[in-house]
Specification:
alpha+beta, 4-stranded mixed β-sheet, two-stranded antiparallel sheet, 6 strands, globular
């Protein structure tokens, strides 16, 4: 049955087996770019646009089949899996097809930075022009980044691995190892306790932020995956803390 272009409802394509996968791939228009389609990768949690790459039919098939992003390199003329050398893989959470069936949006869980420069996103160069200033509404409050998460902080710290210790405190901490990081954890834990005793609201926030930061540095140093820790916390949902402790 022909699709009604005036139907504004979202469309769901079920791709659960080889037959439905082939039917899905036949919908894609690979002709406009000589067998390629643009593929935008977006962070599933923060909604930040991470990168733009290209896929041929094989790359899209591998992405759907494996659950990890695969692209086609125009410069190397070959298929590649994101993170195959860096380890900065993209685990697929959702795939969207655009209205013309010639572009793909991937919502991914990004491991480490997405950009080869070590930055979280490839889109880190902002262009300032007259549009930017004209668009400011002076009657509204200042626009601020409203989303933040510990996962973003984890990715930022993980992206500093291998950097220059002379230029980055995080790199220096990572290079000094668990003893130095552990010492900072001890110091900040004490600071948190003292701020709670003093009941200084601003100081409690400041010290708790420090403590969380150093915990995540230790996670990155120890190669503990962020979602493994989240998974462990989820396993404890609905379980009495006393029961959970006794079960160890």
């Amino acid at each position: 049955m022909k699709e009604n272009e005036n139907d504004i409802r979202d469309k769901i394509l079920n791709v659960f087996d080889e037959m439905s996968l082939n039917a899905f791939l036949k919908k894609i228009d690979f002709s406009k770019l000589n067998g390629l389609i643009p593929a935008v990768a977006q962070d599933y949690f923060s909604k930040e646009i991470l990168m733009l790459a290209f896929m041929n039919e094989t790359a899209l098939r591998k992405t759907v089949e494996t659950g990890f992003a695969h692209y086609f390199s125009r410069s190397r003329n070959k298929l590649w899996k994101k993170g195959e050398t860096s380890g900065h893989i993209q685990k697929i959470k959702e795939i969207f097809l655009d209205c013309d069936n010639d572009s793909i949006l991937l919502k991914v869980v990004q491991s480490g930075p997405a950009c080869h420069t070590g930055r979280k996103s490839c889109f880190y160069s902002k262009i300032n022009n007259i549009i930017s200033t004209d668009a400011v509404d002076t009657n509204t409050t200042d626009e601020k980044e409203m989303f933040y998460s510990l996962k973003l902080l984890y990715d930022l710290i993980a992206g500093r691995k291998g950097g220059d210790p002379e230029k980055s405190y995080v790199v220096r901490l990572l290079s000094e190892g668990p003893e130095k990081i552990g010492k900072k954890l001890q110091e900040e834990s004490l600071e948190v306790i003292l701020s709670a005793i003093e009941n200084d609201a601003d100081k409690k926030i400041y010290e708790l932020a420090d403590l969380m930061f150093f915990y995540i540095v230790m996670m990155v140093y120890s190669n503990v995956d962020f979602f493994d820790v989240i998974g462990e916390l989820k396993k404890r949902e609905g379980i009495s803390g006393l029961d959970e402790k006794q079960s160890r």
